[in-house]
Amino acid sequence: MANYQKIKGTRDFYGDKSIKLTYVENVAKEVAISYGYGEIVTPIFENTDVFVKNVGEESDVVNKEMYTFLDKGKRSITLRPEGTAAVARSFIENKMYATSLPLTKLFYFGPMFRYEQPQTGRFREFRQFGVEVYGQGSPLLDCDVIMVAYAFFNKLGLKNIKLKINSIGNFESRGLYSKALKEYFSKYVDKMCPDCQRRINTNPMRILDCKCDKDLEIDGVKVMENAPKINEYLTPEAKAYFDEVVDTLKNFNIPFDVDYGLVRGLDYYTDTVFEFIIESDDELNGLAVGGGGRYADMIKSMVNIDVPGIGWAIGVDRLISVMENQGLFTDLERRVDAVIMGLDKDSKIAGLQLAQEMRKEGLIAEMEYCKTAMKPQFKLCDKLNPRFIVIIGETERESGNYTVKNTATKTQEIVNVKDIISYIKNK
Ligand code: AMP
After folding, report:
1. Is the pLDDT reported for residue 210 higher than 90?
2. Who wins on pLDDT, 133 or 264?
């Protein structure tokens, strides 16, 4: 039997939902542009390698969550699960490094796809607003990039967002840390999930973001909570870099916590990693609305050019749920300015002409297209609750003077057709 239902974990956007989405998208673009970012639109699908190599074979995203398929030419294609790797691919392929350094600042806004278990704030198709900056590595730049996200949150009026920040060090620090994790987890690995049993040899850091074993307790030991923390393994350079990020952040008015347990689920990060977390007293408490970090070596590993990067991605669907909870969507709906009623066929044509003129002037005008009787047209007015109702009958049409009712004051006036737009605009 044909299945006409939407795919699990996807949503339709219409009415209020699409108004909210468009609003958030417009604010995102406005803020990014005002901070000197240019938009980049990459394809929804890429060669699978783009993600596997950069996001990491042992990450949940690559391992379990990608929508990967063979196209008719037997190429392995993946619906993008995130933006960073795709933007890096484009940066390299278009040789942006040749013309736009020392700093290339890009932003994107669009759908991502992950095969995850749908639940609060987790979908299979969701949207991300993200930024990527290539060309320099500096604690000051890390802070600047984080501040763009806060400019966006502030413009939306978002409250109770906390920054959690950590450093996962450079490759040397990570090597030392991986060794320590391997040793620690070897005591527990027999009781862990098959993925973790594999990861202990391939990439022990990825055990820390395992969704199955996250609350594992063995002989009274909370296995994840007690694992060694990366800060004990940072090299002096990595530690000095992170200290400077934290010191710089103190100059800005944003609440943040250093969280040594934060490692982020994607392999490409180095040094600074962070998440934006909601604090509230409902089911959204603790939800990450975004996250990101620095990736010093991603570009170098794809082409041999030493260009560091940093970026973040904010989950727009989650953000909208939080904004709904915080009551931030109060004045989004624009009211219809006028419903135009035509009481005979020619008056309907005159009404349609007036509607066109109004729309050109930015007014929202609606009409009933089929019926000339009063009743169905007033019914439409009841539904749309316009600011004004314009009534055109034979007499009005011949004189050019239409009846205009003000629905707020419940008064009506005769206004010449040439003056109606300015009359409505001035009220
Ligand atoms: P990530 O790319 O995993 O760092 O995720 C960045 C942000 O995207 C998260 O903080 C979430 O807000 C959002 N996000 C990630 N996965 C999903 C999902 N499956 N559904 C909705 N939002 C998501």
Report:
1. no
2. 133
List Cα–Cα distances, 70 to 53, 122, 370, in angstroms.
Answer: 18, 26, 50
Decide if pLDDT at 218 tops 80: yes
Q: What is the mean pLDDT of residues 236-250?
A: 96
β strands within 173-287, DSSP E: 217-218, 221-222, 256-258, 270-278
d(CA 303, CA 340): 62
Q: Is 90 exceeded by the pLDDT of residue 239?
A: yes
Buried/exposed code over 177-201 (b: 16+ C-beta within 10 A; e: otherwise): bbebbbebbeebbeebeebbebbbe
Residue 331 confidence (pLDDT) above 80: no
Contact by Cβ (8 Å): 16, 333:
yes
Among protein residues, the one with the nearest Cα to ligand 1's atom 21 is 122
Q: Using an 8 Å Cβ cutoff, are 132 and 311 in contact?
A: yes
CB 168 within 8 A of CB 273: yes
Over 80: is that where the pLDDT of 266 sits?
no
Q: Does residue 126 sit in helix, strand or coil?
A: strand
Residue found under tokens 């999930």: 193
Q: What is the mean pLDDT of the chain?
A: 93
Ligand 1 — pocket residues by CB below 6 A? 82, 114, 116, 121-123, 126, 128, 265, 288-291, 313, 315, 317-318
Alpha-carbon distance 121 to 139, whole Å?
31
Give tens-digit pLDDT for 354-393. Answer: 999 999 999 999 999 999 999 999 999 999 999 999 999 9
Which residues of 217-269 form beta strands (DSSP E)? Answer: 217-218, 221-222, 256-258
**For a substitution probing ligand 1, which of 13, 79, 116, 122 has the most ligand atoms within 8 Å of its CB?**
122
CB 104 within 8 A of CB 135: yes
